[in-house]
Amino acid sequence: MINSSRGLRGMAVAPHSLASQSALAVLREGGNAIEAMIAAAATIAVVYPHMNSIGGDSFWLLHVPGEAPGAIDACGAAAASATRHWYAQRGHREAIPHRGGVAANTVAGTVSGWGAAHELSRKALGGKLPLSRLLDDAIYYARHGIPVTVSQSALTAAKLPELQSQPGFSETFLVGGASPAAGSRFFQGRLADTLERIARAGTADFYRGELAQSMAEDLARSGSPLTAKDLAAHRAQLVDPLALPHSAGTVYNMTPPTQGVISLLIVGILDALDIAAVPQGSADHVHLCVEATKQAFRVRDRYVTDPRYMKVSAQDLLKSAHVKELAQRIDPRRAEPWGGNTQAGDTIWMGVIDGAGRAVSFIQSIYHEFGSGIVLPASGVNWQNRGCSFSLDPAALNALEPGRKPFHTLNPALARLSDGRTVVYGTMGGDGQPQTQCAIFSRAIAHGLSPQATVSAPRWLLGRTWGKPSESLKLESRFDAGVVRELSQRGHDVEIIGAYDETVGHAGMIIRHADGLLEGGADPRSDGAVAAY
Prior knowledge:
Blueprint: E1 5-7, E2 10-14, H1 17-28, H2 33-47, E3 57-63, E4 70-74, H3 84-89, H4 110-125, H5 131-134, H6 136-144, E5 146-147, H7 150-163, H8 169-173, E6 185-186, H9 189-201, H10 205-208, H11 210-222, H12 228-233, E7 237-239, E8 242-246, E9 249-253, H13 260-272, H14 283-303, H15 320-328, E10 346-354, E11 359-367, E12 413-417, E13 422-426, H16 432-446, H17 451-456, E14 460-462, E15 473-476, H18 481-489, E16 494-497, E17 508-512, E18 518-522, E19 529-532
Parallel strand pairs: 15-16
Antiparallel strand pairs: 1-18, 2-10, 2-19, 3-4, 3-11, 4-7, 5-6, 8-9, 9-12, 10-11, 12-13, 13-17, 14-15, 17-18
Helix pairs in contact: 1-2, 2-4, 2-6, 6-9, 13-14, 13-15, 13-16, 14-16, 14-18
């Protein structure tokens, strides 16, 4: 029996149990969902260092009962000196390298998101817990050590050949010159000092204080184009999320430069195809989800980038007529040829709903595992490589320009249903994110599975994601052999992966029912847990 966790006064889910517990502790002290998420975000940056970092970006979806949902864009832009000429001078004319200082070309926005969320909590929700309390667990774990997970140990070992020469990587992430052993204790003293400074001086110090100046000097020494002026110019932005009308209610996701509109498109296409009438986990179910993904990805690759450069409104892409048009292109019996180029990425998703029904769907990332690979010597900050996704072709959709935000695979999801339920859900996994979102949303909302059952059920992935370079349709081995055979016969290039394979991401979901009951599920593929009371 796969049972969901249940609670009444508050619930958190994260891909690492210590992050869930950090959030729960804040809720128990009377903190609200936003305060709880700040605590979880700080803790996860410490205890899951291969998946995220304070040197990355984040996005927030926020909901207060009776009010329209809001969002925080805590994504950093490209450095003012990050031009095609700058890269050409350094011998990079075709593509931006994935590792090293030259890949660390965008401001890390996540700490600004913590600050914006903390201020919003104080002003709009009456939050009273200081930042020092919310970062307390993270500081402790960085100072006194974290238990190394199998995921951290294995990924460090797998990526060692390409990362060990990057400035600061070996000193920070290796123990005795090797990957830390699973179950051992792993210390991050410099990061503890930096988190203590942020707790004391405030999040603005990361961008306009002594910490910012220290990081700018270390970034320059690593070969990054980022400067103190780039850090000082950054601000998190409060934005209105995208909304998709759905037969079950309204589904929300993040605005560009994320692919939130694509996650919504897939859900909308499946709704137009009446996915509720299709047995979940069947060949028909998987086929329609995969074909909807192909249609949505083509829209993404044509339109989605920094919103200042988009030629169409993302919200317009969600109009009913466009959604139905895409649905009509799908052949229910035959797979459309797939020559896509999907993207990988390391990320964490977390959700919190408090006793008052205030909900947060949150995602935080450094893009590839360990980001750029560089670790700043004074602060211990591992910087992201999100900007390596920029193209050096000036005609490309995601062309590099100074001050431009890079395209993000990140997208947190939230739904308000007509029956009174509120749902927060999401996952890590690059282009697997919209695919897993459609899987867990359709299973939970269209087919009535519990959060834990829907998160645990076998999943699929079209294309590449974390650790997998091929563009095949990957199916977990728990799928029935007849489903696999039928999908192959329909023209899908099927590849079988592990029974509970991290390739398909670390998902999570919380549902708040109309009577206030909370129900959640954490992914058995991760080190996560649901924490509730």
